[in-house]
Amino acid sequence: MPVKNRFAELLPEITEWRRDIHEHPEILFDTHRTSALVADKLRAFGCDEVVTGIGRTGVVGIIKGKSNKSGRTIGLRADMDALPIHEETGVEYASKTPGAMHACGHDGHTAMLLGAAKYLAETRNFDGTVAVIFQPAEEGGGGGREMVDDGMMERWKIEEVYGMHNWPGVPTGSFAIRSGPFFAAADQFDIYVTGKGGHAAKPQETIDTTVIASHIVLALQTIASRNADPVKQVVVSVTSFETGSKAHNVIPETVHLKGTVRTLDPAIQDLAERRLKEIAEGTAATFGGAARVDYRRGYPVMVNSDEQTEFAAEVARAVSGDCAEAPLVMGGEDFAFMSNARPGAYILVGNGDTANVHHPKYNFNDEAIPAGCSWWAEIVERRLPAA
Q1: Residue 98: helix, strand or coil by DSSP?
Q2: Which CATH number do you get for residue 277?
Q3: Collapsing DSSP states into helix, strand and coil, what is residue 36?
Q4: Where would I find the Peptidase M20 dimerisation domain in this sequence (predicted)?
Q5: Domain edge (last residue) among 272, 299, 326
Q6: 115 lies in the same domain as 264
Q7: CB neighbour list of residue 92: distance below 8 Å, 6 or more residues apart
């Protein structure tokens, strides 16, 4: 039976898994229910080994092929965690956890990889070993880093790794990918501005932190427009401006700014960090105040390896008939920790005409499940052909 037909037959069952996970979202590393569900299903499928607690709450299932003449092992990774968002979809299987929602489709990723794992454990039509990797804390917690640091790659001798993400706005079940830098490095910063508070009617007696911080917000935009090479991507966004004052007539003593920097080039990342500190400190000093900057490097640039990307695109074309070139994405993706540790490729699967990810009305499109499962299965059977 063709792989795509097999997963069309399994679609109702996989959809049921997905919607159950959607109803019970868990954030960051607190994926205890989801991890247990995944582990139970992998055991029921007949995986040769199921290990929990990798990277705190991650799960790894090992499936051995009919033969192992190649001695090779490849990894397939899906993320499990949700977001701290109140759901507004109105679907009957909406989140039962207030303030938590699968707003990025990780429920769909997990369900698709479970579907592929069931198929692979039943057929074992490959030579070698597959590690199905279910990761917590993709949404800012660095779960991928935790699993790599836990020795996952070495423990199972994983040689290369593949990941997938749904993508709204792309036709359902179609694919897109690009080689080289794909998702951006994602850094965070906090700027603490200090001046002299006082009565709003006597600004001459104060050092106005609100004015200082406002100038800093605007000046930071010159990093992209006047410091970075125009052909290099960099995004500097101030996302929070907190004065700590609730009164209309008080000039606050301090202001706290928060934000993020996104880059695709290490040299531009270095430039952005240096200039952010210089601009914040220099602007504050100009007005008689002071600024302290806390800059933290987050997820690195996610880079697709050339050989694995070409292969992943070939498989996508076999599954859907086409594979487009994906755009550069300035969002972060902690699959980067795995693809930094081993050669790998990360692909986008179309979610159709839906709300964007991280939106309270977003919902994973179950019609994408057969294509996603088929891609996983074809990756294995083509990369590890039966002897």
Answers
A1: coil
A2: 3.30.70.360
A3: helix
A4: 188-281
A5: 299
A6: no
A7: none
> Are residues 291 and 365 located together in one domain of the fold?
no
Task: Give the Cβ contact number of residue 82 at 10 Å.
Answer: 27
Last residue of a domain, one of 270, 299, 328: 299
Q: Which two tokens stand for residue 298?
A: 């987050």
Written as six digits, the tokens of 266 are 């290490």
Domain span at 202: 185-299
Q: Is 362 strand, coil or helix?
A: coil
For residue 1, give the 3-state DSSP assignment: coil
DSSP state, residue 223: I
Report the half-sphere exposure of 88 (CA within 13 A, side-chain side).
8
Cα Rg, the chain, nearest whole Å: 24
- Per-residue pLDDT of the chain in tens (387 residues, 90 and over written 9): 566 677 988 999 999 999 999 999 999 999 999 999 999 999 999 999 999 999 999 999 999 999 999 999 999 999 999 999 999 999 999 999 999 999 999 999 999 999 999 999 999 999 999 999 999 999 999 999 999 999 999 999 999 999 999 999 999 999 999 999 999 999 999 999 999 999 999 999 999 999 999 999 999 999 999 999 999 999 999 999 999 888 999 999 999 999 999 999 999 999 999 999 999 999 999 999 999 999 999 999 999 999 999 999 999 999 999 999 999 999 999 999 999 999 999 999 999 999 999 999 999 999 999 999 999 999 999 999 998
Backbone phi, then psi, for 63, in 5-degree steps? -125, 120
Contacts of residue 269, Cβ cutoff 8 Å, sequence gap at least 6 = 185, 187, 261, 263, 297
- Binding-site annotation: residue ranges: 104, 106, 139, 165, 358
Neighbour count for residue 90 (Cβ, 10 Å) = 8
Number of domains observed in the structure of the chain: 2
Residues annotated in the binding site for Mn(2+), as ranges? Answer: 104, 106, 139, 165, 358
3-state helix, strand, coil in the chain (%, to 5): 35, 30, 35
* Alpha carbon of residue 312 to chain centroid: 19
The C-alpha angle with vertex 261 and arms to 256 and 264, in degrees rounded to 5, equals 175
Q: How far is the C-alpha of 277 from the C-alpha of 198, rounded, in Å?
A: 27
